[in-house]
Every structure is written in C-alpha cells, then in structure tokens.
Specification:
By secondary structure, the chain is an all-beta fold. The chain contains no helices and 26 strands. The strands form seven sheets. The chain has a four-stranded antiparallel beta sheet, with no helix packed on it. Strands 2-3-4-5 form a four-stranded antiparallel beta sheet, with no helix packed on it. The protein has a four-stranded antiparallel beta sheet with strand order 6-7-8-9, with no helix packed on it.
C-alpha cells in the first residue's frame, strides 16, 4: 500500500511477498545467520528455533530454545528475539528462562547456554522479548510479561514494571524506562542517537523514541507515532522493527509492516494478511524477512 511516492525508493515496485516456511505456532525473532545466507527464527510457544536456507528449506534447528529449566516457568515458552553479537555468538531473549543468554555450545538440536543477565535489583525479569547490541557492546532489551501466565497478574511476576533495560559490558543492568505498558521490539537509528521502541498494547499501539544524552544513555522517551485507532481495522500490533541506513524504520504493526521515515511520516505498508511479529534484513539489505503468525515470509 503506497501512501507516499518515496516508498518506491525503499521497496521495488515489482517486489512480491513469498512464503518461505509455514506451519509454525507463532514465528518470531528472525535473524540472518552470518556467512550462510540462512535465516534463524523462533517459534515461541513450541520452544523451538528453526533455520531456513535456500538449499534445505525450513528445518528444526534448536530445541528447547528458551525454556530449559533454568527458571521455573508455567508457560515454558521458548526464545523470542535473536541476534548475532559482534563476536558472532547467537544471543537469545528467552521467555521461559526469563533471561538473556548466549548459546555456549550446540550438538545437533540441543544447546547449552550462558546467562548474560536474569535479574534486575535482585528480582527475576518477566520474559525478555527483544534485544539489540550497540556499537560499544552494550545490549538493550525489553521485558514485557508475555511469557508469564496471566501477564501482569501472574504470581510469577517480580518486576513492578514492564521495562526497557540496558546491560553494560561490566554486567550492570540499568532501567531505561518502566513507563511503557508492553515494550516489545526495539532498534536504534544508524548514528545511535535515537532508540525506537514498539509498545504492543492494543489500547496504546505506539512507537516511542528515546534520545541519547551526552553520557551515551537513552532517556526522555517521547511518543513518536500512535496507531491505536487502526488496531481494530487489521490484525497485528507494533512489535518488531529494524532501521535502514537511511534512517527509515521498518516496523510491524496493524496490517503488516509499516515503512516510516525518520520524521514519522508513514510511506506505506507491506500488507501480510495476518499479524506480523518481526522483521530481519538480509546482509546485503536486498530482502526483508518477516515472521507473521505461522509464516516466515520474504
């Protein structure tokens, strides 16, 4: 759906949506695997990570992915957001284990994990959802209650807020904001001066933007774009997002993927027909991968 002619500078006019993989319960957290051209993605309720490649198609890659018994969990949900860090390690936001973890070793479809962080002020996180790594090695991540049975009312919930956090290289965790009701996907502008965070609340379907201060910390979050009025018109909520080198934001939301310029002008949408959860770019940025409901799309 073209809302501004500038969309055609982002998406080819003859681009077509392809189904690469199907039959998943809730596909999430896609990431390009360095060097291979393959894509890894989570199936959160099934506690799995899948791998899609041009040669082999879709194959089960890792299970369990995020509920391994590290932390008692009723829902036993798997990984959500995935990234490869600067060392080439797979880093996972694990719902069931309620932590950020690095894959330490893998044999077949089984892996061992090393905890990066699982606590803030001595209390367990809710269910870390999505994460990014900054140029200086800090991790930023969100912690809504989706991995807890009953959400905010869960007896397992220990944090008084649903936070956006920073994990410094020395292991210290700090709270960027506890004011969003459902902080979810996050990404930074190319110069890292702005942090974008999706709020996946149907009553407050929004994207927020935080400014980096002179000390390098993100603060002063402001409402960047509110799409609550569109929630009842099409499936999906603000969820995962990525930022192009131009500063253009590719963000899942009602109806599919929203293409938004840095000034907050919506250039158009990629309509997926089902709720879209997250996006990833191929290393050459020629393709956009989209996890949407049961599908991995390209």
């Amino acid at each position: 759906e073209v809302l501004d002619p500038a969309l055609q500078q982002v998406i080819s006019v003859d681009a077509k949506l392809e189904i690469l993989s199907t039959g998943h319960q809730w596909a999430e957290g896609p990431v390009a695997e360095p060097g291979s051209g393959a894509v890894l993605f989570s199936d959160v309720p099934k506690n799995q990570i899948w791998r899609w490649s041009e040669a082999a198609g879709s194959t089960l890659y890792l299970t369990p992915s995020g509920s391994t018994g590290h932390q008692p969990s009723v829902l036993k949900e798997g990984s959500n957001g995935l990234i490869f860090n600067k060392k080439g390690e797979l880093v996972l936001a694990q719902h069931g284990d309620r932590r950020l973890a690095v894959r330490a070793a893998q044999q077949g479809q089984q892996a061992t994990f090393r905890t990066l962080t699982g606590l803030y002020q001595g209390k367990a996180f809710n269910s870390p959802n999505d994460l990014i790594e900054l140029k200086d090695g800090r991790y930023l991540f969100t912690d809504p209650p989706y991995g807890l049975e009953g959400g905010d009312q869960s007896a397992e919930k220990q944090q008084p807020h649903n936070g956006i956090y920073q994990l410094a290289s020395d292991g210290v965790v700090s709270l960027i904001s506890g004011s969003l009701t459902r902080p979810n996907g996050l990404a930074v502008s190319p110069d890292e001066q702005f942090l974008y965070v999706a709020n996946s609340d149907p009553a407050a379907a929004q994207w927020w933007r935080f400014k980096r201060n002179a000390a390098g910390q993100y603060q002063d979050g402001v409402l960047w774009l509110d799409v609550t009025s569109t929630v009842k018109q099409a499936p999906g909520l603000p969820d995962g997002l990525k930022v192009l080198p131009s500063g253009i934001v590719l963000a899942t939301g009602p109806a599919g993927v929203w293409v938004i310029n840095p000034q907050g002008v919506v250039l158009g949408k990629i309509k997926t027909g089902v709720a879209a959860a997250n996006v990833a770019l191929s290393p050459d940025r020629q393709y956009l991968y989209i996890t949407a409901s049961q599908y991995l799309l390209r």
